[in-house]
Amino acid sequence: MSVTAVPLQPVKSSYKVWLWAGLVLAIAIAVALAWTGTRASVAAKGSDAEFLAWNKGQIGVQTTPSGLEYQVLKEGAGPKAQEGDGVKVFTTGTLRDGTVFQPAGEIPLQVGGAIPGFDEALKMMSKGSKLRVWIPSSLAYDKAGPQHPLYGKLLQFDLQVNDLIPAEQLRQMMMQQMMQQQQQGGGAPGGPGGPGGAPGGPQPGGPEAQ
User: Fold this and answer.
1) Architecture of domain 62-183
2) Residuewise pLDDT in 10s, the chain (210 residues)
3) Who's near 169: CB < 8 A, 6+ residues apart?
4) What are the domain boundaries of the chain?
5) Distance (Å, whole) CA 136 – CA 62
6) How far apart are the first and last CA of the chain?
7) Whole-angstrom Cα distance, residue 163 to residue 4?
């Protein structure tokens, strides 16, 4: 019995080009993924400077001239916070390893009364804004000295401004509170955090300037 060979159509050169191109692309993607994973691993285990150098290349992350890195999670509406304004901000603070030093919660603050990186972030926000920020230690607690628990630490905060009170309005509210307490024979009014007093902040740390 004879077997008749079935002739195969020759592969066109254009198809060969596409096949090779697809193979090269697949290899490039695999190398890129491996490199990205390696960089992420190095960033996670490396120094704060190495982490920040890697982090600023991530999608949506921007860097200010001071070195603060931030990502806009939600745009707000209205004017941005300015020096002396009062804000109510819902925030969570963590270290690079995930340790929570600032439990989730809303705190009142006066812009200009927190650590430099926190104040800088607030001045980029309006009511309803949500940011994720990475604050280098130089913009956090380095000036507080080695005795501070967060000295030399890179801090990450998730921030949401729930309310914003202009500085002049805040000043009037504080004066009214002072007058009411004087009339009632009470003690000193709340601090610069606005009505209700200055935020106690988490222990250790918190965004208040030391």
Assistant:
1) Roll (3.10)
2) 555 555 555 555 655 556 666 666 767 566 555 545 555 565 567 899 999 999 999 999 999 999 999 999 999 999 999 999 999 999 999 999 899 999 999 999 999 999 999 999 999 999 999 999 999 999 999 999 999 999 999 999 999 999 998 888 877 877 888 888 888 875 544 444 333 333 333 334 567 665
3) none
4) 14-45, 62-183
5) 14
6) 97
7) 84
The C-alpha atoms of residue 206 and residue 92 are separated, in whole angstroms, by 10
Contacts of 165 (CB under 8 A, 6+ apart): 85, 86, 87, 173, 194
Q: How far apart are CA 38 and CA 32, in angstroms?
A: 10
Give the predicted TM-score (pTM) of the model. 0.69
The structure tokens listed for 81 are 């916070």
- What's the token pair of residue 58? 């991530």
Q: How far apart are CA 127 and CA 87, in angstroms?
A: 9
